[in-house]
Amino acid sequence: MLYNRNKLNKNNDRKILRKVKKNWIVVSLATFAFIGSSYVVSGNVNAKASVNEVSVQNTNSVADDAHSSAASDESSVSSAGSSSSVDVDSKASDSSSAIQTGITNSSSSSNQNEAISSSASSSSASVSSSASNESISSSSANLDSSFLRDGDNSSSSSSSANTTVSSGFSVTDPDYPANMWVDKTQGRYTFSAVQDVQLGGQIVLSTDRNGDGVVYATSIDANGNVVDQETVPKNSSVNLNDQRQTTINNYDYYGVIDSHGEGSIYKIIYDASDKIRVYLNAKSFIVPKLISQTTSYVDQNNKNIVDVDGKEIKPVVQYGLNGQKYTTGEPKLVNGYYTKHFQVSPSNASGIMSPFYYVGQTVKTFFPDSNVTVQYTLLDYDGDMSGQILDGTQVVASDSKIPKGGVSPNTYLKSNIIYNMRNPYIDQTSNIVYHYLPFGSLLPYDRDTGQPLWNGHDEYKKVYENDPNDYSKALNPYVVNIPGYYPVDTNGNRLTPGKDRYPISDPSNPDKDTIIYYVKDPVNVSHEEKTVNRNINYVDSNGNVVATAHNDNVTFDRTISTDTITNETTQGNWEVKNGSSSFPVVSSPVVPGYVLRNDSQKTIPAVTVNPSSSDSNETVTYDKVGSLVPVDTAGNPIDNGSHNTSYPNDPNDAGKVTNPGIPSIPGKTPVDKDGNPLTPGSNYPIDGTKPTEDTKITYVDSNQKVKVSYIDSTTGKTLESADLSGQPQSTSDYRTTDTIKKYTDQGYKLVSDNYPANGVKFHSDNQEQDFTVTLEHKVDTVTPDNPGTPGQPINPDNPNGPKWSNGTDKDSLSKTVTRTINYVDQNGNKVHPSTTQTVTFTRSATVDEVTGQSAYGNWTTENHSFSSITSPHINGYVLINSDDSTISVLNVNEDSSDVIINVNYRKLINNHHNNPGKPSKGNPHVIQYSKPKLNKHYNNSDNGDKDKLPQTGESNESSVQLMGLILLFISSVLSIFGFRKKQSK
């Protein structure tokens, strides 16, 4: 839409129509724009928008609303400074626009679902009154099949190898002028472009193919370079960063390009809705929306037809933009269900997409300067519309029926503007219907009587045949044979049945019947037939039928001619009626659950027969196939054979079976002969040479069991056990390492472990496997040289492990018995260094690391006694007791206490030096001994039954003294006795 900008601002200032040569400028404007845009990913896209014209004339001319048409229609408005907008009421939504500068006209399309809007205004520029239909071309892309959708389920309905809908569907984009820049951004559709005739650049508008109303404005300089591109959302304005700071106003699916300049600036290069080539300073535009149309294929009862496979052909939905070209496809039905039907293609099988969809649809044209609305309502699909002119809300003129393309005589005058009504209808494309109607027939009549010959004999009616090259035409039918008659042509010439064709009486209307006349033949020709039959029966071993019998027949025919005057008959030769005198080779059918007993019966051979042959009956015997029988490890069927699976038949050989699938049994696992688990659902190999014998397959419990016991060999008790389970032939991830470590940390020692180091492999025999890990208490031996430390860990690397018990230290494993010999005078003073003797006893101990208990060995020593010791000679001292001259050997044991012996000396009274304890000879005086101090001999145990140590204890000294007194007494008595005896002599 074009505007001459004198004073254009956002407040919609009143526009002034400028006069040129005392006449009002006539502007030819497009009144209608097609709705929406469709996003075409790839497809051959080419289309042209149809153009309608609006003429703006002087004040005495007639104003007509802007409208839409597939052809070039004209509307005229006579006014100064007026503007208008056109829109369509619909079931969904509508939009209108009215933007004007001077006197201009604009049109827009709105509403995806059956709605249109357009605008019109006057212009001061001088233009031609006819629309330009320049020839333009460009490459196109393939239509995305996603825009061919099934009317019921919205699935793709494009052609395929299995459908009768041809691949003739297409919706194509416009062919753009060669000098026009096109927005090739993915998902965008270029719908308008103007040229700046002063600066040489272009303003190009595009939008999203999903019809969201967003506009993309691109400024192109004179060299074809992109200066700026801006996104203009709905209901917004954006200035381009070009030389003119062009403003793009995007309202609700319509808008204006404003140059902010004076005079003639813009020339339309291309517009999907406006084909005027005028020079103005502002240009209105319409943003496309998506529209749809449906193609149906129906029979004479308006029911959807079906294809050769009996599948219903449902309506196909195409989506496109107003003004795009479209084509539709035709089902290929030769030899299909609709053979002997002819196709009537609709006039709108291809063309330009139209926004008109339904009866009752309303189109409105609004002139905002005058508040006048002209509206139309669609009355029928012939294009008749009613019209009204409203001033505000008041109806000021109307017409109940305006024919397609017609102009109502009823008008309205306001402010020197005459408003009229011109029907804007474009042939609707929303309902494209292909009709498939039955052909007529060739009907035989008796030429002499005029009576029909087909009564009771439908076979005498010959329905027309399809023309394989044109589904809308029929071939001339062959004439049929009627016994006793012969057919004739229109000139009375005899025709040969089955050989000659008869012309259809009205080829342009192949649904009409054609009459053919027959004449009685003086020779009555009859036919004799004989049929030879072969029946092949398929039964089991008990004679029960397992498959439908196969029947073949050969029919022989001969003519018998009878002269109606002489009644003489003549028999013709026998001829095969159906073309072959042999029964064909018949392959025996594959019968589920059965196989042929005899391979020789896989095919029944061909047999040639003649009219003298008798009927034959063949019997093919089948046996029941074997089964795959799941059994337990004992060979017993599982669940009473409820899981038995019959062998599948070989689909290509009635005498063979294939490997059956392994059935799934809850809680059971199938295994092969080696115990390896099998997968339910997979095939199990059988002996194909024995298709009637059963095959057993072993199942085991899905969880096979293993028990691992940990035994304390020291106590014979079981420390713990692990119960494992797993799939047959699978390997357990259980290992004994951690458990063994747990016990060795507690003081055990591993004796043996027969559990596999890499994990046990579960068997497939339902028998539990047993494994034993033997452990014993670890026993440590301690000696005085290698003692323990009570309370400390036996193993320093395991501080939380067993501890050394009491009695394992060195002092508990070693014992020393000491004998000390002191040399003292009467006063107990040492007169000589003491002699010390020791005997050391040792023993070992064993410690149970688990219980902490200790066991000791016997005390041992290298010498169990103290050796004898000779008392030393001490100058100036003499032994008080001569028996002390030698300290005798003393036996001791581990229980003995330490021994202390005091050897007593006394000083010599004179200077005679005698041996200790012995008075010197010739020394008559008695040596005085001071009574020695007796030291108690300490022992660590009672030894009453042991010998007293000589001269070492008080008891010993008392006994010696007593013995000395007794001996002195005896010696005295004997001396007296001897003295008396001597005197008596």
Automatic annotation (TrEMBL):
InterPro entries: LPXTG_anchor (IPR019931), Mub_B2 (IPR041495), MucBP_2 (IPR041558). Keywords: Cell wall, Membrane, Peptidoglycan-anchor, Secreted, Signal, Transmembrane, Transmembrane helix. PROSITE patterns: GRAM_POS_ANCHORING (PS50847). It holds the Pfam family Muc_B2. The keyword Transmembrane applies. Residues 949-985 form the Gram-positive cocci surface proteins LPxTG domain. It comes from the Bacteria. This is Cell surface protein.
